[in-house]
Amino acid sequence: MTVRIITDSTTDVTPAAARQLNLGVVPLKVLFGQEEYRDGIDLTMEEFYTKLTSNDQLPTTSQPSPNDFLTEFEKAKAAGEEIVVLTLSSQLSGTYQSAQLAKDYCEYEPIYIVDSLSATIGTQLLLREAIRLRDAGQSASQIAQQLEQLKERVTILAAVDTLEYLVKGGRLSKAAGFAGSLLGIHPMITLAEGKISVLGKARGKKATLQLFWQQMEKLGMPDLTFEPIFGYTGNREAVEDLITFMDEKAIVSPQVCGVGSVIGTHTGPGVSAIAYIRQA
């Protein structure tokens, strides 16, 4: 049996890349008032961040329905393919639960659903490994098993301009968000057991870069057999200093990814981030 890999749009793989890599992508949605947009399809990244910063009211996001996943599952079922599904952290969204419900409706045995416990470039690390394993001839069961093990080593670090968006979107408490309210302070966030937490804060560019390194030393350094991925929200310039800094530390990767509208709704523009697989 061949294997079909399906993910959701918060993995931030472009439609062109998804076609090239033979991936199924189920979109989440972003709503500005009554206007609904499918993540990664109906708005370009530039258009989204322009709307985000020019609107007084924060947009909302919504998970895919079980039927959205079921449509993809039925295609694979008809083709006689096994299925591996990789979703956004279940602690941040009901996307994983929608995929589980769709599996029940589909009544098709070889569907393996992996909760990444991560988001955006963190999930994308796992997706890249899933593609490699698929292309090496691994079964869906084997791929899912290895992803379950590898996800425990995924680390994502992000410096944000403000925690305002995370607090307004309900992803962070007001008390935790207080650290980001001081002028010139750049809070650093991560995902721990699938949930957002604040690791620390720094004032100014140089101190922020040093905080990245300090946290990497604390949490575990990258296993460079897996290419790290750099991420940004809004303008790529936000992450260029981090790329240069890591290059000087011999952590080099060509993988740079813009973060899309669903995650960007909750972080705002100006984020710089790195995701990597920790050394075992």
SSE pattern, N- to C-terminal: EHEEEHEHEHEHHEHHEEHEHEHE
Gap from first CA to last CA: 31 Å
Rg result: 18 Å
State the domain count: 2
Architecture (CATH level 2) name of the largest domain: 3-Layer(aba) Sandwich
GO molecular function: lipid binding
Protein name: DegV family EDD domain-containing protein
Pfam family, one: DegV
Keywords: Lipid-binding
Short description:
The chain has eleven helices and 13 strands. The chain is an alpha/beta fold and 280 residues long. This is DegV family EDD domain-containing protein.
Structure report:
One of its GO terms (molecular function) is lipid binding. Keywords: Lipid-binding. Pfam families: DegV. It is a single chain. The chain is of the alpha/beta class and 280 residues long. The chain has two domains: 3-151, Rossmann fold; 153-277, Hypothetical Protein Tm841, Chain: A,domain 3, CATH 3.30.1180. The protein has helices at 15-21, 45-54, 66-79, 95-106, 120-135, 140-150, 164-168, 174-177, 205-219, 237-248, 261-267; strands at 3-8, 23-26, 29-32, 35-38, 60-62, 82-87, 111-115, 154-159, 185-192, 195-203, 229-232, 256-258, 272-277. The protein has a six-stranded mixed sheet with strand order 10-9-8-13-11-12, sandwiched between helices. Strands 2-1-6-7 form a four-stranded parallel sheet, sandwiched between helices. Strands 4-3-5 form a three-stranded antiparallel sheet, covered by helices on one side. A hairpin with a 2-residue loop joins strand 3 (29-32) and strand 4. Helix 3 packs across helix 4 (95-106) and helix 5 runs antiparallel to helix 6 (140-150).
